[in-house]
Amino acid sequence: MSTVPDPQQNQARARVIEMVGVGKRYGNVEVLKPVDLSIEDGEFLTILGPSGSGKTTIIRMIGGFTRPTSGRILLDGRDIVDQPIFDRPFNTVFQDYALFPHMSVAKNIAYGLMVRGRPKAEISRKVAEALAVVDLSDKAARYPADLSGGQRQRVALARAIICEPRVVLLDEPLAALDAELRRSMRDFLKDLQRRIRTTFIFITHDQDEAISISDRIVVMDHGRVEQVGTPEEIYYHPKSVFVAKFFGESNLLAGGVTALAGTDAVIESALGTLTKPGHAGLNAGTAVTLAARPESFRLVAGDGPRAGECDVSGTVEAITFLGATSQLVVGIAGAPGETIKVRAATKEISGKLAVGDSLTVAWTPADISVLAG
Amino acid sequence: MTEALVAVAVYGVPAVLILAPMVTFLLYSFWSVQDGRLSRELTLVNYATFLSNPSYRSVFLGTLQLTATVAAIGLVLGYVIAYLIWRVRSSLRYFLLLFSVIPLSMSYIVKIYAMRSILGYNGFLNSALLAAGLISEPSKLFLFNQTSVMITMAVIYLPYAILPIFLSLERIPLSLIAASADLGARPGQTFRRVVLPMSLPGSIVGALFVMVIALGDFLTPQMVGGNQGFTFGRAIWSQFGMAFNWPFGTALAVVLLLASLAIMAVAGAISSRARVR
After folding, report:
1. What is the fold, at CATH topology level, of the domain defined by B46-106+149-276?
2. In this structure, are residues A362 and A308 in contact, taking their beta carbons and an 8 Å threshold?
3. Which residues of A are less than 8 Å from B277 in CB distance?
4. What b/e string do you get for B47-59 counting C-beta neighbours within 10 Å, with b at 16 or more?
5. How far apart (Å, rounded) are the C-alpha atoms in residues B179 and B34?
6. Does B182 sit within 8 Å of A91, measured CB to CB?
7. Of A93, A329, B71, B73, which sits with the fewest C-beta atoms within 10 Å of its C-beta?
């Protein structure tokens, strides 16, 4: 490893937007509990949550459509809460696209430049560029009603990026598309964001979308930020039961802290005794939930567990073939009714294991998250 | 058996109640009155009279002009009122809308009398202008002429303009207005580039609707028009009520119907073109 520090790596990316204690309530209903959130320059940030979690409220407050009832929203360190929508250097891709039906595709895309009174030559050059970026050069003279859903989506994108906004806000833009188009638009969005190096704030309720597209994810529930982190952090190290359940499949096992040793916590559960470092907040007697992904377990062959691994034995209760991988439901020996889901390569299982067989699975304590409650 | 009864009901009732009177009406216009007696021989003489008589032609064109003016006033005033109501973003807006169309439920005659008392020599308008010092003696300009017909029609038909204009504003998705602001447009720009172009076709259709209603109105000109406020509707009425020349009156009514159909065709073309986009 190089000993010379790489300034690019050490320097944290500049913050574009900083939300400080930003909350929203309508009368007695608090739709967004005060949130602190920094958005870094050039990142693809996804706000993920079920409907009613407050994710749209955040994007609407940044865009200027909704006024927060508390807190400050800083753009480059300056509070913009009182700045009207049309003065904010952000552009939005709306869920229903909100294309102007009485204007051609080219006019729609040109709109932002036109209302700013830019010269005609500049407008037509930039519109041509934007049309090329979204691959719609042959549709310039068409009207939105003539376009397919995916094409409208791309017009909305081109219209939002043409003014070179500091941040592009995307309000569930893929929700109205069918599954196949969603996937290709998802890749297109990510690629576009890399090419134009602009901060994207993307709203979705789809976990797979969030994981595949984002630099960072903000998970929200009931008007509260549950966790902020990279997709890997959120997937493998959820900080709450909600986050663990929300992303993919998880094993959730009840446990209890039996003792503390320094900052280590000794936790007893169906998996046996587990020592987790760095859980100073826990006390002996605290009930906890252990969360682990099915793929965090390893089938132990003849060699036994490796160094640093724990193991538990059990019985195969069910096998589900999923293609390249298969999922086993393993009943834990000595803990009646407790099962864990284990994901393994199909070639490790097929022909070797059947329902009723005994087996041993191993795991690394670092792959298990200890959650409150 | 029941199927036959249903068929009679479905085709027979409209045929008797709508088609038959229309055919009779059309037929009448090709008959004539000779020496005070109805002749049932088919003739184009009524239409020829209309086309060759300059006074009927000028009354017809003058009425078209008058009602077009009424429609234009309805468009402008109706747009301003509908826009102001539409801008109210609380439940008050539907109350205001209801309030502005309440005159529709009032008797037509009462409204004309009300307008007469406002426009008359000692009416509200003259009193107000006198009190304001704008005129030194009551003006006779406001009653018993073409202007009074125009003002009265413009006022009593205004609700017919407000409603369709409000609906065409209401149909604009709010997300388009948000998108316009998001893209940097100031409120005035959003109005000029999004709200106005999107609501104008529906508003023009509403104004043309007003024109069609005003075109057939003979009571308003009769009551506030005096001798000078002669319109095509009055000309038709006089053929039925005074000259007792029903065939000629019917021919004039057919001309009026054709004019109304032409206006509605224009309105239809505007609204279908607007819908395509």
Report:
1. MetI-like fold (1.10.3720)
2. no
3. 101-102, 143, 145
4. beebeeeeebeeb
5. 69
6. yes
7. A329
Q: Where are the domains of chain B?
A: 46-106+149-276
A102 contacts on B by Cβ (under 8 Å): 197-198, 274, 277
The predicted pLDDT at position A76 comes to: 92
Alpha-carbon gap, residue B254 to B60, rounded angstroms: 12
pLDDT band at B9 (very low <50, low <70, confident <90, very high): confident
Chain B's closest residue to A105, CA to CA, is B277
Residue B96 exposed, middle or buried by CB count within 10 Å (0-12, 13-18, 19+): middle
- pTM listed for this prediction: 0.83
With bands split at pLDDT 50, 70 and 90, how would you rate the model's confidence at A6? very low
Say if the Cβ atoms of A86 and B173 lie within 8 Å. Answer: no
At A280-306, the pLDDT tens digits run 677 778 888 889 999 999 888 767 778
Q: Is any Cβ of chain A less than 8 angstroms from the Cβ of B179?
A: yes
* ipTM tops 0.85: no
With 0-12 / 13-18 / 19 or more C-beta atoms within 10 angstroms meaning exposed / middle / buried, residue A296 is buried
Q: What is the DSSP string of A115-141?
A: HTT--HHHHHHHHHHHHHHTT-GGGTT
For every residue of A86-112, DSSP letters joined together read GGSSEEEE-TT----TTS-HHHHHHHH
Chain A neighbors of B181, CB-CB under 8 A: 64, 84-86
Please give the structure tokens belonging to residue A71: 């807190």
